[in-house]
Amino acid sequence: MLRFDHLLGLGLAGFVFAAACGGGGDGNAASSSSGGGSAPACTTDAQCGASDPCKTAACVAGACVETQAPAGKLVLDGLVPGDCKRKQCTAEGTIEEVVDDTDKPDDYNPCTLDTCTGGMPSHATDPAMEGAPCGTNNQIVCSAGLCVGCNNEEQCPQGGVCHKVVCNPMGATNACGLEIDVGKQVSNADPGDCLRAVCDMNGLIVPAPAPLDVPLPDANECDVESCGENGAVVHTPQPDGTTCGGSTTCKPSSCSTGACVQMPLPGTDVVTETQVPGDCRTTVCDGMGGTLDQPDDMDVPPDPTATDCTGPVCSGGTPSTSPKPQGTACMTAGATIGMCDASGNCI
């Protein structure tokens, strides 16, 4: 546990996630050129981005050109608020860390003075606050640099986003303090990038793996995307034989070891997807990935009048009717059972 009088540099909870991820450069959208190579077309400086935090990029004659940034330019990459230091560019274009006593730390304790001296943070007792009320709704008081008199955490001054407030028993007077809430999830702004923002042991907000995130599927039908334990996207192959690529009977394709591949073309396989039962025709593969429509005199239409002496037939791919075989049972006009003659009459 950290007591307020022992906290040094814990004004870090406001550290932005983007800074924790790092990035190099000014973060503008377009890429840039340092001369001699190809560069994207541009019309304004805003379309150019520097490749290094100690360079600037500008649009010159339709191309992005980089120059060295002036000495003293603030570098945001790796910025740690409240550490009494800052990073800046040198005249040579390198990055240096310098003392910045205006970058004061915050220990979230109203009973102390947060100061920087020669680049070193400190939290000395604030004499002006001795005996003054502190904590939630000013329920307790400052004593020797501590907010004391608490009976529960709700009475204490609240810390940063990465802190847990504690009421620490200290005899007759209970003092408020903070603990760093290591591993606390601060945000998960993009649930598809396999990363989330959490608190580390120093109270900084840093990126961490988010294995329960679900990334968007990529263009490959033959794999499934998921998040790994290390924060990277994992591509798991679909089972071999899974159809893909708009596979059809005459132009089949399926997954093989995570890739969509063309299968051997069939010869005259029947294309069952487009068949129309009883139309006296059939569609088959032409062996080149296409289809071929041809007569099928075995594809006889259903008989709409099963009790008479004529029935449907196919002839050269064309449906027609023909007398049923002589002697076939039928129903006469008088509603009696008869037999078909050779001419298709029921007698």
Features:
signal, mainly beta, three-stranded antiparallel beta sheet, 33% strand, disordered N terminus, 347 residues, 1% helix
Characterize the structure shown.
The protein is mostly beta strands and 347 residues long. The chain has one helix spanning 17-21; strands at 2-3, 55-60, 63-68, 85-89, 95-99, 112-117, 120-125, 133-134, 140-143, 146-148, 163-168, 175-180, 185-187, 195-199, 205-209, 223-227, 233-237, 253-256, 259-262, 281-285, 291-295, 310-315, 318-323, 329-331, 337-339. It folds into four domains: 2-11 and 102-180, no CATH class; 17-99, no CATH class; 242-299, no CATH class; 300-347, no CATH class. The protein contains one helix and 25 strands. A three-stranded antiparallel β-sheet has the order 1-12-11, with no helix packed on it. The protein has a three-stranded antiparallel β-sheet with strand order 8-9-10, with no helix packed on it. The longest helix has 5 residues, at 17-21.
Structure in a nutshell:
The protein has 347 residues and is mainly beta. Helix content is 1%, strand content 33%. This is Tryptophan synthase alpha chain.
Per-chain topology:
Elements: E1 2-3, H1 17-21, E2 55-60, E3 63-68, E4 85-89, E5 95-99, E6 112-117, E7 120-125, E8 133-134, E9 140-143, E10 146-148, E11 163-168, E12 175-180, E13 185-187, E14 195-199, E15 205-209, E16 223-227, E17 233-237, E18 253-256, E19 259-262, E20 281-285, E21 291-295, E22 310-315, E23 318-323, E24 329-331, E25 337-339
Antiparallel strand pairs: 1-12, 2-3, 4-5, 6-7, 8-9, 9-10, 11-12, 13-14, 14-15, 16-17, 18-19, 20-21, 22-23, 24-25
Protein name: Tryptophan synthase alpha chain
Keywords: Signal
Organism: Polyangium jinanense
